[in-house]
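Because discrete structure vocabularies remain unfamiliar, it helps to consider an illustrative case, giving the amino acid sequence and backbone structure tokens:
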Amino acid sequence: MNYLYNLKVNNLLNKKCKFKLMSKIKSALSLVIILIFFSGCQTVKDKTDAIVEKENEKLSKFLGKSASELQMELGKPDEDFKNAKGNFEFVYNSKKYLVPCERRFEINSENIVVGFVSNGCF
């Protein structure tokens, strides 16, 4: 009888130990998954920042150049209009992987590119 009692107690203790061990494993696994997720987000952010930097470098070369040089390189704009400051804006639209890309260039009264904005381009 005493033997059966000891066996049941040992069995119960083993179950509690297994439960604690499984709980610790789940906590450790959750921590690892969270770390991987956040490091993955940082990787995506770093790649996005690099793409934006590359796009800005590409478009910066047009600053200070004439509107005709811009058009020789990029072609005729999809839209052109005068903005609130009285400067012309040339708008170039495209799509890559079904993502719309818009590049706007501001041209002053001397026909020189003085600014640009790029949205959704990579």
Summary: Helices lie at 2-60, 67-74. The chain has a mean pLDDT of 80. The CA atoms of residues 66 and 72 lie 10 Å apart. The two ends are 77 Å apart (CA to CA).
